[in-house]
Amino acid sequence: MGLVLGIETSCDETAAAVVDHTGGVRANIIASQLDIHQRYGGVVPELASREHLRSIVPVVRAAMEEAGVGYPQLAAVAVTAGPGLMGALLVGVTYAKGIAYAAGIPLIGVNHLEGHIHAVLLEAHQEHQEIEFPALALIVSGGHTHLFFAEAPEHYRLLGRTRDDAVGEAYDKVAVSLGFGYPGGPVLDRIASTTTPVRGMFSVPSMKGNSLDFSFSGFKTAVRRWREAQSNMTAEIEKRRALLGQSSEPALDDWLALTPEATRTMISSFQQTVVDHLETNCRSALQETGARSLIVSGGVASNRGLRERLLRPAFPIPCYFPTPALSTDNAVMIASAAFPRLRRGEYSSMSLSPEAGMRLDSVRESPA
Q1: Secondary structure of 223-257 in the HEC alphabet?
Q2: What domains does the chain contain, in order, with CATH numbers?
Q3: Tens digits of per-residue pLDDT, 39-90?
């Protein structure tokens, strides 16, 4: 079967990886743009595209060198074709086409969301674990919150998605508004574990129509109202921003020293209710579908509160998370997702165009 070169440029990380047919990772290179976007409190699409253009050649070259292979030894080149930022996707797809044409190897376009699912499947295979299907797949990140029913690998049906912000986006916006900077999700997660949440401070949204959809914009509004009701909050936020100006990665103890108990309790309550929302929809989907396992992936899969909740013995089905290294965007998952298509000889044409809003359940029809 050979080796697959994976390329990922859907948002703000330029990544390349070489994976073999056994699931062995020969190389995994990621160039982060965190320092570029941090000052703006979020990803700036135009800057992301520019940085991908600067990074794509050295990142792919580094992956090939680390793997110790040349292009003629590759069985295919796989690339994220969507969803994502259009300009960022264009960089990866265009470069992958060039490699495929010059090396005379197949090109395989991969759905980014399916890649996240394959990150879990790959590591389960490496650990000799068998994930039982049908399964639920919850993709949670800064750009996505989707819940799928997978009757079998590669056969997906969308059950619910966010109607507004992605869960990771809500975390980051709340963190920025409180002076913790971007990306702030990991900081809030760490702070949330230091105190006990208060039930009733936030509420899980009641969804009209599709009850399996998600909504996180109300959480931001609730935090803003809480913040505005605190008499000393402006000074507190400015102190945290000053700390962030001294170091891009302050230690937890430094954050805690500038975060009073009331603020920590609010953050813990925020996280508890967000996790409630995610767990409630997963449990409802389980009752509706009879799934035998749950796959959780994406950057927010690293959230400790979410992991602890879904990995409890009380949760009714086995739950599988990727390691933190494969939770965020990476090219290992893109290469891994390409292998089933490579085995079937299903290749993309050189006319492959990226789709910013690509749907996962349109990749392959579910079996009748």
Answers
A1: HHHHHHCCCCHHHHHHHHHHHHHHCCCCCHHHHHH
A2: 3-118+327-344 (3.30.420.40), 133-317 (3.30.420.40)
A3: 778 888 889 899 999 999 999 999 999 999 999 999 999 999 999 999 999 9
